[in-house]
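pinned: reference chain
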Amino acid sequence: MQQATPHRRKPFPFHIVVFLLPAVVIYTLFMAYPLLDSLRLSFFDQRGPEPVFVGLQNFNELLFGELWAPRFWNALRNNFVFFSIHMLVQNPLALLLATLLTARRLRFRALYRTLIFTPTTLSVVIIGFIWSLILNPTWGIFDSFLQFLGLGDLVQPWLGSEKTALIALSLISVWQWVGLPMILFIAALIGISDELIEAAIVDGASAWEVFWNIKFPLVLPTIGIVAVLTFVGNFNAFDLIYTTQGPQAVPNYATDIMGTLFYRTYYGVQLQPGNPTMGTAIAAATFVVILAGVMFYLFFLQRRLARTEG
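pinned: its structure tokens
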């Protein structure tokens, strides 16, 4: 009887460590360590010569204090409005564009994809400057276009009114970034087997029925990923509002979001000195909000989707 040869363990793949080590070191030094250190500093009072541990006092002041609570809740509310407009406008529009641009009969599909994706490659400073000119109530072409269409009653200072500034900036951001989810949706739609679609067409399904009953269920995982990326990206937003409205998020903080609130608090503006203590508390609160959103997707929506597919 032949003896079984002992199972030999595979050697540890040290070559993988060699390739990953530079990226891990750089990420740890410039991302992980500053994040953890800022979380640590949020439990200290840094206004004296030496940091003093105060526990949750900074967060209590941020959430419930007479001075900081109105600023924080206003910025958080605006951030959710900013995110909601992207979810309700950008992502459905991206899915619609992706569906149209994967149609076989459409000519110049590559050109259309390039034109839609191009704004994502432009500098936010350029985007903010151009749209500030377009929406300028004095010489902007947008109000002139409305008057040409006979809609002169709608003319107003879009970036200067508390009612419209945040919505206008959200739509500008949608215009700039709609190309990214569109590309992700296109990749998901291209991956769908042609046999499924052809079989549905042979059975007499309309274009809408093919999309709703075949394409949409198969791109649901991509929709979830896009939703998470949108959430994280919107709560990290800063540059567009800073470029167009400044650190004060004019008018009257109507466009203030977590990023601008953190910048204005930590570094200070004009004659107002910075407050690193509350700045780190705001940064920590932003991190908690983002983490809660990601955890909600991973442990609730994704598991529910997996059970549905199973």
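why pinned: The two ends are 46 Å apart (CA to CA). The first helix runs from residue 14 to 41.
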